[in-house]
């Protein structure tokens, strides 16, 4: 079962070896007020910081810290670690100013936690070949061991009071997704992991099942030295503003708004067709990227969402082909829509045209999401939804807001005041969010065309002294072309040609 809780109170980059972590990051941490640089400890992973499908740094924590530093005129030095316990220990040793994505348990002397911005719970992950009841019975009988993360030991300790045979192993150098992958491959029997990471990973590993959340929800927060009251006040003010102006809500939607759209059976069917059907058309999706700049995996995801990669697909409304084009659109683009090669190229050109025709003020990835919605429902209805957002004091340039006004186009109260009238506006929302999930899966298993270093401004530095894998699909396939990138990446990297879709992966 999938779930996602949000608190209202609120990458594989393989570095060069030989960099001594303590020598580089423990030497006399300067005050951020003197250096104008904020040193931030962060875990590598799909819910914090990683390198996304387009070779750029991404992640909820990465984006939040970047916005925080910009709002306070500070440079950032991210220091990546793979151990949750290490983040707390290094913060206590004064090796950084802030550690992010921590569970606010209030149990660490000398550390102060900021406001909560996200609520998570532990879930038990098991192989879907067994039932949940069978999984618990095996654990309660002491026939298997749970692998878990340090932050969830209290939950298991409480459970052991009722089931004395319950046993677990704490892992210090892995994240939730690695544990889920172990259950999927059979290397691990059971794992207790973060609910938000489990929701993200479930589409990549449909062979696993999950229980309901266990214990009380835990609040995520940033932590800093308890004596630094000024920094704590700045963090408090930042999150208050991020909640008030919608920044936090929009970032949550960007990384997690689509994770519950595809069920396990559909995810498994998609993975099967990726192996059996996608190879037939992959070269044409590649050509589509070369000619339009759209990530070929996005075009492939669009095609799957439309036709399940069936060149002969047809709908009762008259759209046909692997990209499900209308007769008018196919004629305008000079394509035979039943020819899969022509249909793929035409569909990609159409999406690029829709995207480029939107207001320049619309940022990515919202711009592409809106273009995909227009592909489904029509550009006129998308423009109506953006105008409704404006009238309702929402942000017409934000997909998170526009996807709330699109469904209103079926109601007379709203479509009566629009230019293009009635539309089944809920359909493009489901269309785009499902497509985003398929894109996520492809970005995990299918390599991009070419490689590039992440692009950073001169105000941001990412240090990866342990040479941890940060790239989106590093956990699922061997890394080849990106193996020589440096451990410290700063400004000057070449930006990739395809449009950036900042989504959550590891």
Chart the SSEs and their pairings.
Blueprint: H1 21-25, H2 32-35, E1 37-43, E2 50-51, E3 57-58, H3 60-71, E4 75-81, H4 84-92, E5 98-103, E6 111-113, E7 118-120, E8 122-127, H5 132-140, E9 146-148, H6 153-160, E10 168-170, H7 176-185, E11 190-194, H8 195-201, E12 208-210, E13 218-225, H9 229-244, H10 247-256, H11 264-276, H12 278-292, H13 296-307, H14 327-332, H15 340-357, H16 366-377, H17 379-391, H18 399-405, H19 412-415, H20 426-445, E14 460-463, E15 488-489
Parallel strand pairs: 1-4, 1-5, 4-14, 9-10, 9-11
Antiparallel strand pairs: 2-3, 5-13, 6-13, 7-13, 8-11, 8-12, 14-15
Subcellular location: Cell outer membrane
Domain Solute-binding protein family 3/N-terminal: 37-259
Keywords: Cell outer membrane, Membrane, Signal
């Amino acid at each position: 079962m999938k779930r996602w809780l949000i608190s209202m109170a609120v990458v594989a980059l393989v570095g060069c070896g030989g960099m001594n972590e303590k020598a580089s990051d423990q030497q006399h941490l300067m005050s951020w007020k003197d250096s104008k640089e904020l040193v931030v400890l962060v875990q590598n992973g799909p819910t914090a910081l990683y390198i996304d499908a387009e070779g750029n740094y991404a992640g909820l924590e990465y984006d939040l810290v970047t916005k925080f530093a910009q709002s306070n005129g500070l440079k950032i030095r991210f220091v990546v670690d793979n151990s949750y316990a290490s983040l707390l220990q290094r913060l206590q040793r004064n090796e950084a100013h802030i550690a992010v994505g921590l569970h606010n348990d209030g149990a660490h002397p000398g550390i102060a936690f900021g406001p909560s911005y996200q609520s998570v719970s532990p879930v038990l992950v098991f192989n879907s070949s067994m039932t949940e009841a069978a999984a618990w019975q095996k654990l309660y009988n002491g026939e298997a061991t749970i692998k878990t993360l340090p932050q969830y030991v209290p939950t298991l300790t409480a459970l052991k009071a009722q089931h004395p045979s319950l046993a677990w192993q704490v892992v210090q150098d892995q994240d939730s997704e690695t544990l889920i992958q172990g259950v999927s491959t059979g290397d691990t029997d059971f794992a207790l992991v973060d609910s938000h990471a489990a929701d993200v990973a479930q589409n990549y590993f449909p062979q696993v099942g999950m229980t309901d959340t266990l214990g009380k929800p835990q609040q995520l927060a940033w932590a800093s030295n308890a004596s630094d009251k000024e920094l704590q006040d700045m963090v408090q003010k930042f999150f208050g503003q991020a909640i008030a102006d919608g920044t936090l809500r929009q970032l949550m939607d960007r990384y997690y708004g689509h994770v519950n759209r595809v069920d396990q059976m559909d995810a498994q069917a998609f993975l099967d067709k990726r192996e059996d059907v996608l190879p037939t058309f992959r070269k044409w999706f590649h050509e589509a990227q070369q000619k339009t700049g759209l990530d070929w995996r996005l075009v492939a995801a669009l095609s799957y969402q439309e036709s399940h990669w069936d060149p002969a697909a047809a709908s009762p409304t008259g759209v046909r082909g692997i990209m499900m084009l209308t007769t008018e659109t196919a004629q305008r683009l000079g394509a035979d829509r039943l020819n899969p090669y022509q249909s793929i190229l035409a569909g990609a050109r159409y999406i690029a045209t829709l995207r480029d025709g939107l207001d320049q003020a619309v940022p990515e990835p919202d711009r592409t999401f809106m273009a995909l919605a227009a592909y489904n429902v029509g550009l006129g209805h998308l423009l109506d939804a953006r105008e409704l957002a404006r009238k309702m004091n929402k942000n017409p340039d934000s997909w998170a807001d526009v996807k709330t006004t699109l469904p209103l186009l079926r109601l007379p109260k709203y479509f009566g005041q629009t230019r293009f009238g009635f539309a089944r506006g809920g359909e493009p929302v489901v269309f785009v969010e499902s497509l985003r999930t398929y894109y996520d899966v492809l970005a995990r298993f299918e390599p991009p065309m070419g490689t590039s270093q992440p692009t950073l401004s001169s105000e941001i530095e990412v240090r990866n002294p342990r040479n941890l894998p940060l790239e989106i699909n590093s956990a699922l396939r061997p890394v080849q072309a990106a193996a020589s990138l440096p451990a410290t990446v700063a400004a000057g990297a070449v930006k990739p040609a395809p449009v950036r879709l900042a989504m959550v992966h590891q």
